[in-house]
Amino acid sequence: MIEVSIFKEEKYPLDSKKIESTVRKTLIKNGVSFDAFVEVAIVGEKKMDELNKKYYKDEVYMHPIFTFPENIESNFSFPPDGKKHLGQIVISYPTAVETAKEKNISLDDVIVSLAEHGCLHLIGKHHK
């Protein structure tokens, strides 16, 4: 089973079940057939600024998503909770709101798309 933990920095009006379902489906579709755990955090501008400065010191570009994959190979062979911890996906709520307005699509669709993108990064699939 793939367990997904959703953390919202604020009481953002999002469909957490849709995010969880998308994360599970994306991972299964891409070959994750073992028990796994993924964290998804939806955060505000202040936290994203902090992460951007820490990991992209010279860039002005504000990233809409950060992924922090765990190295699957270096985790416990038999993790105490029985699940491989794949890592964390951090999504910018303000950037998602802006994108939804610009593209005239629902906020949930933008968040789900970013979560799917983050899942691919956690399992080592990167865009070109």
Q: Main beta sheet: strand number and arrangement?
A: 4 strands, mixed
Q: Which series of helices and strands comes N to C?
A: EHEHEEHH
Low-confidence stretches: none
Number of separate helices: 4
Helix content: 40-55%
| Strand percentage | 15-25%
Helix-strand category: alpha/beta
Tally of individual domains: 1
Radius of gyration: 15 Å
By CATH, the architecture is named 3-Layer(aba) Sandwich
Overview of this structure, please?
- This protein has helices spanning 16-29, 45-55, 93-103, 107-122; strands at 2-8, 36-43, 65-69, 84-92.
- It has 128 residues and is of the alpha/beta class.
- The chain has a single domain, classed as Collagenase (Catalytic Domain).
- α1 links the parallel β1 (2-8) and β2 (36-43).
